[in-house]
């Protein structure tokens, strides 16, 4: 057996780290069902965009790191949310978040931005401080990728 073989499936409903995040840390679940209420809620909101921990091991890292980062932001954050792992990728795509896990900030119904992927403590704090200072949503761009090498040389 490889030392990297998973012994058991990770169930976000029963896993102690997820339970701690929802219980002790007060994170609420963001899903398609709760989305309307989430967007209607005022104030600065901290969101963890999470993916399936059975296919993306980084999810378990962000479940530990996210609440600590949120706590370090103090009282400027009015509520904390974590996406349902089954819907995290689809919800992230709605706002153009491409790399999970991600820590995002919303003010009211306005998406302010996200720190995508895993980062250092200082990296997260610097990115989130910049995002929290925004007053409007970031501009979104669409990447157009060439289909083959001939198109690539002709497109620029």
Automatic annotation (TrEMBL):
Classification via InterPro entries: NiFe-hyd_mat_HyaE (IPR010893), Thioredoxin-like_sf (IPR036249)
Signal peptide: none
Gene3D superfamilies reported for this sequence: Glutaredoxin (3.40.30.10)
Family classification: Belongs to the HupG/HyaE family.
Name this protein carries in UniProt: Hydrogenase expression/formation protein
Source organism of the structure: Sutterella seckii
């Amino acid at each position: 057996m490889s030392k990297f073989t998973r012994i058991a499936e990770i169930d976000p409903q029963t896993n102690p780290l997820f339970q701690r995040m929802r219980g002790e840390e007060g994170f609420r679940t963001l899903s398609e069902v709760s989305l309307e209420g989430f967007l209607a809620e005022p104030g600065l909101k901290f969101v963890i965009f999470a993916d399936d921990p059975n296919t993306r091991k980084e999810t378990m890292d962000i479940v530990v790191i996210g609440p600590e980062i949120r706590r370090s932001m103090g009282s400027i954050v009015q509520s904390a949310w974590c996406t349902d792992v089954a819907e995290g990728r689809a919800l992230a795509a709605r706002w153009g978040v491409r790399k999970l896990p991600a820590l995002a900030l919303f003010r009211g119904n306005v998406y302010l931005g996200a720190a995508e992927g895993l980062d250092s403590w200082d990296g997260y704090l610097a990115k989130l401080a910049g995002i929290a200072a925004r007053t409007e949503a970031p501009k979104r761009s669409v990447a157009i990728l060439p289909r083959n090498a001939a198109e690539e040389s002709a497109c620029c």
